[in-house]
Amino acid sequence: MTSDSRLSWRDVRDRIHEHILTGRYGPGDRLPRDADIAEELGCARSTVQRAMQDLSDSGLVERRRKGGTRVRAEPVTRATLDIPITRREVEQSGARYGYQLIRRRMAPAPRGVVAAFGLGASRPMLRVEALHLSDGRPYIFEDRWICPETSPEVNDLDFTEESANEWLVLNKPYTRLDLRFYAVSANPRLSDLLETEPGAALLVIERTTWVDDAPITTVKAITTPGYQLLTGS
Amino acid sequence: MTSDSRLSWRDVRDRIHEHILTGRYGPGDRLPRDADIAEELGCARSTVQRAMQDLSDSGLVERRRKGGTRVRAEPVTRATLDIPITRREVEQSGARYGYQLIRRRMAPAPRGVVAAFGLGASRPMLRVEALHLSDGRPYIFEDRWICPETSPEVNDLDFTEESANEWLVLNKPYTRLDLRFYAVSANPRLSDLLETEPGAALLVIERTTWVDDAPITTVKAITTPGYQLLTGS
DNA sequence: AACGGTAATATGTAGCTACATATTTTGTCA
DNA sequence: TGACAAAATATGTAGCTACATATTACCGTT
């Protein structure tokens, strides 16, 4: 791109990355000041700043005011995950999407849900259990709790046609998100719903969202065997 | 922060986010041009640009030249994952870290590894199997393949004291990363190594790295039951 | 030597301008 | 009507300046 005479901030970033790759700057080493790099490369400090920000965002370097920039002594593996709406995920794989509501009812939130939201005490919430299908076969079972105080509209929604997943993602943007991944063995009910052998290992994607400390929803998405979650970046 | 008279790009971002939250702009809607928003809020276009970039990065809006900015019609749940070095992960939990090499030998790469790297044919690679311990108990078992063409130094490393995980993360920065998560049932060997019941559900974190299309390493990190992977953002 | 205040310094941010780039829209000609 | 070229337009990027902010370094006092 901008391959002219001017250096783009991506060029600068890649050049510094290159220096880290080749060992010119090793873990813990301090890099020159932005201004010096700018002069050396013949670009503006703002360009170096953008490049450094990006390297910092991707976890390769650490920056501190007055302290300068240094290569992370203990790098982290950092990646961005995109989790689409389940319907879209199925459709993009070329399969036909299906949806089936299993149960919808108010119930007092159990301990796990109260803890996920960081609430003090239990309270009644809407529990929605549903099955996402891919070409007619079970794909993901979701066990969801919705806080009716934050989303009063759910009292008028039956979730028989549109999934809570879809409705919430479209209508309830969040300000805070908590994700966790773990594995569980299929208990009799799960193996029945997902049509798997009892005891099969299943990946669970647990998601909890808030708007400014007000809990929206928490959901366990229990996937079928063989399901893999991939990074896009 | 910059709470003075001047608006920071974070303020602008939050203000626009607020408008999306309250439904002033719904999914698919087009937002005003940056310049108009800048004028309305009394700040520079560059400030709005930064705010919009951030909203775009977090998957809330989509921007296209000439096309303008619009709220994503089908939002994605986007999150950033940080996976630290295993030693550090254990130490940060307050436990004592231990490491044990199980096996280290050259072997022809099996199909799965060849596929993960996107190679045409199999070739000999270094396989390193090792156990990470937390307070003396198994924590993560890693089954790793290293490409000796890309990292010839590994021929002189025995990985009995320092884990391949640590050495690679410190000495082999990558330019491309592939992450995948899934669940497996513990087979007899795994349940023996990890001291779990046979058939236990285990979360697997699979990581593959490259430097400019040259494969570095691919590793299956098989965690013990109860292990959870969390987002930091 | 310990403490505390002040200066020095590197990054962070806001604003401005100018131009680049991608895309849509418009207009013209066959 | 269709195809293609040209104009219009919104975002993207680079450079500059000025100032804010965090943190380290220094120095004087006790």
What can you see in these coordinates?
The structure is a homodimer of 233-residue chains. In chain A, strands 4-5-6-9-8-7 form a 6-stranded antiparallel sheet. In chain A, strands 1-2 form a two-stranded antiparallel ribbon. In chain A, helix 1 crosses helix 3 (45-57) and helix 2 (34-41) crosses helix 3. Chain A is 27% helix and 35% strand. Chain A has 2 domains: 9-71, Arc Repressor Mutant, subunit A; 86-223, Chorismate lyase, CATH 3.40.1410.10. Chain A has helices at residues 9-21, 34-41, 45-57, 86-92, 111-117, 164-171, 188-194, and strands spanning 61-64, 68-71, 77-83, 97-108, 124-134, 137-146, 176-185, 201-211, 214-223, 229-230. Chain A is built from 7 helices and 10 strands. Chains A and B meet through helix 1, strand 3, strand 7, strand 8 and strand 10 of A and helix 1, strand 3, strand 7, strand 8 and strand 10 of B. The structure holds a DNA duplex (30 and 30 nucleotides). Chains A, B: This is GntR family transcriptional regulator. Chains A, B: Pfam families: GntR, UTRA. Chains A, B: It comes from Roseovarius atlanticus.
